[in-house]
Amino acid sequence: MKTFIIYALFIAAVLAAGILTGVSNLPGPWYDSLQKPFFQPPPWIFSPVWTVLYVMIAVAGARTWLRAPASGRMQVWFVQMVLNLLWSPAFFGMQSPGFGLTIIIPLLAFILAFIAMSRAKDPASVWLFAPYALWTAFASVLNASIFLLN
């Protein structure tokens, strides 16, 4: 029962934080007016992708918490989560692709660090974080492109 509660809490907390950050920092007219690269995905794709990714991030966090709540790996998980939640307010809220870029690059580094630290201890968490790493790498290129185009 304790394991189920930990998973449920992580999933609920991560989804709630992601949704709150997202709805508090909607793209809006400012973003619509920016020049965007040809590979910009359609707007409707972001919500379903992030919902799935947030569940996977939460499951990896819960797995780590259950195995080693005070570990360096858990600390890296929390840092990446904070950076993840800061990106939307920086990019959309402050209308600053440059500031967004200064957050998303370390975010990607912490995601990759979590993957590296999990490789030997929890291969399932590596697989849970792999799509997140790929999406964040793509988002980093997109963020940098918007910064350079504007």
Number of domains: 1
Q: What amount of the residues lies in strands?
A: under 5%
Biggest sheet overview: none
What is the overall shape?
globular
Description:
It holds the Pfam family TspO_MBR. One of its GO terms (cellular component) is membrane. It is found in: Membrane. Keywords: Membrane, Transmembrane, Transmembrane helix. This protein is 81% helix and 0% strand. The protein has 150 residues and is mainly alpha-helical. The protein is globular, with a radius of gyration of 16 Å. The protein has one domain (2-149). It is built from six helices and no strands. The chain has helices spanning 2-24, 28-32, 46-67, 72-93, 97-118, 123-149. The mean pLDDT is 97.
SSE layout and pairing:
Blueprint: H1 2-24, H2 28-32, H3 46-67, H4 72-93, H5 97-118, H6 123-149
Name its key features.
150 residues; mainly alpha; 0% strand; TspO_MBR; transmembrane helix; TspO/MBR-related_sf; Tryptophan-rich sensory protein; transmembrane
Describe the structure concisely.
By secondary structure, this protein is mainly α. 81% of the residues lie in helices and 0% in strands. Helix 1 (2-24) runs parallel beside helix 4 and helix 4 packs antiparallel against helix 5 (97-118).
